[in-house]
Amino acid sequence: MQPGDRVSLAVRPSNARFHPPADPKTPIIMICAGSGVAPFRGFLQDRAMQKQGGQEVGPALLFFGTNHPEVDYLYREEFEQWQRAGIATVLPAFSDRPDGEVSFVQHRVWAERGQVGDLFRRNGVVYVCGDGRQMAPAVRETLVRIYQEASGASDSEAQRWVDVIEHERYVSDVFA
After folding, report:
1. pLDDT tens-digit map of 161-176
2. Which domain CATH number covers 169?
C-alpha cells in the first residue's frame, strides 16, 4: 500500500448473544476458521482470569482451522498455556498439513464428536465464528451428523433438532 491508498471495510455489531455464558462452569464448544479465533481468545482469557481468581470453570473445546501450523497458528503459545492449565482443549485443523482425514475444522469436529457430544449433553453451548459461506454451513451439517449418529434421528428430525438448538445453545457470528 502507498500513502493515500484506501482500504474498504465495514463495521457491524456482532450477534448480541455472542458472549461467554454467565456461569463460567457451563461447558463451551468454540468452532471457527481463520480470523474467527479472535473472539474465542477473549472467551478463554476471561476463563483464565476466572480460574486464576478461584472460580471453577467448565470444560471448553476450541476447534479452529487455518492453513499451516508454522505460519498461521495465531496465539499458539497462549492456547498451549491455557491447554496445560486446563482452561481449554485446543483442536486445530490445518488445510496445508492434513492430519489423516482432518484438513478443515468440520473434519476435526467430526473426528472429536465424542467430546462434542459429551459437552453438549452436559448443557454445553456451541459457538461458531468466521466464514459464513463455507465453514459455518459445513460445521452445522457436521453437528447434524453427530446428532444423527448419537440419536438415530432421521434427516428431517435432525434438521428440526438443529433449528431448535440454534435458538437455545448454538450461537453464531459469521461473515462472508
Report:
1. 999 999 999 999 998 7
2. 3.40.50.80
Please indicate, yes or no, whether the overall pTM of this predicted structure exceeds 0.85.
yes
Q: What does residue 5 show for φ and ψ, rounded to 5 degrees?
A: -65, 150
pLDDT recorded at residue 12? 65
6 or 165, greater pLDDT: 165
Range of the domain at 111: 28-175
Residue 84 lies in a domain: yes
Q: Is 101 helix (H, G, I), strand (E, B) or coil?
A: coil
Cell 463460567 belongs to 24
Cell numbers for 41, please give them: 481468545
Q: Which distant-in-sequence residues (6+ apart) come within 8 Å of 101 by Cβ?
A: 107, 111
Q: Find out whether 63 and 104 touch, Cβ atoms under 8 Å.
A: no
pLDDT, position 175? 85
Q: Is residue 5 classed exposed, middle or buried when 0-12, 13-18 and 19+ CB atoms within 10 A define those classes?
A: exposed
61 belongs to a structural domain: yes
DSSP run (H or E) holding 149: helix 135-151
pLDDT at site 4 = 81
- Show contacts of 14-18: CB within 8 Å, 24+ apart: 14/39, 14/173, 15/171, 15/172, 15/173, 17/171, 18/127, 18/129, 18/171, 18/172, 18/173
